[in-house]
Amino acid sequence: MAERKNQPRPGGGPRGRGVEKPKDAVGTFKRLILYFKDYYVTIIISLICVAVASLANVASNYFLKPIINEAIMPFIGKQNPDLTKLASILITMVFIYAAGTIASYFQSRLLGDMAANIQEKIRVQVFDHMQTLPLKYYDTHSIGDMMSRYTNDIGTLRQMLSQALPQLLSSVITFVGVFFTMIMLSWKLMIIVIILLIFTAFILRIITKHSVSFFIKQQRITGDVNGYIQEMIDGQKVIKVFNHEKTAINDFDDLNADLTHSAASAQILGGVMWPFTGNIAYLQYAIIAMIGAGMVIDGTMDVGTIGSFLQYSRSVSQPLNMITMQASTILNALAGAERIFALLDEPEEIDEGTVTLVNVCYNEKGEPEETEERTEMWGWKEHLDDGTVKIIPLKGDVRFDHVTFSYEEGHPVLNDISLYAKPGQKIAFVGSTGAGKTTITNLINRFYDVQEGKITYDGFDVKDIKKDDLRHSLSMVLQDTHLFTGTVMDNIRYGRLDATDDECIEAAKLANAHFFISHLPEGYQTMITGDGDNLSQGQRQLLAIARAAVADPPVLILDEATSSIDTRTERLIELGMDSLMHGRTVFVIAHRLSTVRNSNAIMVLEHGTIIERGDHDSLLADKGRYYQLYTGMFELS
What we know:
The structure is a single chain. This protein is α/β, with parallel strands linked by helices. The protein has helices at 25-33, 40-62, 64-72, 84-132, 135-139, 143-185, 187-234, 236-241, 245-298, 303-315, 317-344, 437-444, 467-472, 488-493, 501-510, 514-518, 537-551, 567-581, 616-622, 625-636, and strands spanning 356-362, 368-370, 378-383, 389-393, 398-408, 411-421, 426-431, 452-457, 460-461, 474-477, 486-487, 527-528, 555-559, 585-589, 601-606, 609-614. The strands form 4 sheets. A 6-stranded mixed beta sheet has the order 10-13-14-7-15-16, with helices on both faces. It has a 4-stranded antiparallel beta sheet with strand order 2-1-3-4. A 4-stranded antiparallel beta sheet has the order 6-5-8-9, with helices on one face. The two termini are 21 Å apart. Residues 1-19 have low confidence and may be disordered.
């Protein structure tokens, strides 16, 4: 079992995110611009299209003035009116509308493709970078939080690039165009519009100020509800075992009631905005119509001008509303981009190693030499200071020299640990949960680096060995088995991707998994989904053992490898495991002490310290902690 304490709760979504704003919007946007370097032509064409579509929309209402003044008013009451002027204006309007429609299509198409390509690039960057992050990052970040980078954050980023930014620009151009066109038509009536716009903005600011708190609370509780639902779904078996269905329902009802209250309050205040702005628009229309009618009667304004102005007055507030909405979307997207960039800025796993793992063969003098062929013999390739290369056979000699380690400063997990495993030895670690057993194996793999002391592998400090090569020389069977979507054969081959089908089958036989695999509906081609939900826990672990067997590593780590296998199956695989462990250095962590009896050395850990060491017989003779554990296990079996 792992020794980490207070790890983040897995699953669910990131709680309490609410409506986010970026901490450094300008800096984030500047960094985002770097993704546009291959799309400058696309952006320029798209901006032109946005401008054309927006100006076409603005110009369309203006044509109401010449239609009324030049094509309708002069012919009122006349027989056989000349409709040439009207037809000419309408044809011009058709061309303007067509130009605006075509421009809108190309703008949407170009920006949509650009946003999709940038989204793909960022998604690939995030995924690739996450493969380089140290295990510590995954220990300190929840699954839901990491998944939100791929879903929420990248999704809002695409929405900003393909929709919010062009709509914001279109709204600005439209508002500026409408504003100056209205001034050109009648600056006197425009004063009334400006006064009403200022009044509307003032009232909306008051409503928004009160509604934001409810929207934030709604988002936070939504995260709580979603997280609670996922947690309850994952824990249904536990809930039913302890008859806590009613408690779960009551807790959910409380959360749901809070969500309903905050959502209702937010929607009520949010719903007030549109009726308010709509009624103000109608009021504005009525006032302008009344005053404009008086000006027409006085002869200070023509009918076409007031008709065109009224059309503009109904649409002047719409761009402002769109600007507010898109600005909010852009701020949320920049907040998401900031989180994406924060992940991309996470430092990669440090690897300063220079010693590499190579296939070796032996020349006539019996000296190891590097070879490209897979010889099942390995060696360490060391580059010396004088420029020469030295090949040292891989033996599997692992030593801890006064190692002290802590996940969090001030809370040591291992205290001054010293131990050794000679080539081919089987070393077992036993002790209570949290004693530090799994941590030792994590340090051998360099999932973490020690703060004090040193770990050597065939005489090399593990920090001097390239991490990929170090981990290629090791294979682990973990207590928490993870299977990937694919066939049984694919999951076994995951241990070594170039393994043949025959080698995978031999590995399955070695792990005693061949029998149950042969009885699956499609045998080795049976599809595994949902982390192996169609298999028992014991079968999943047998596949994990087969995966380790096909890797054929010089050093093997078994972390509770048989914890979910029944006693009968455990006995059946002992011979296969013995064959797998033959000639290899093996580290075993086990709660079933019967599985460690034949170990060369057994380390008993307590609170990060080795309190006893020796073989099975000597530790029993000492009648210490191991004796107490073993006799207790025996009595329970």
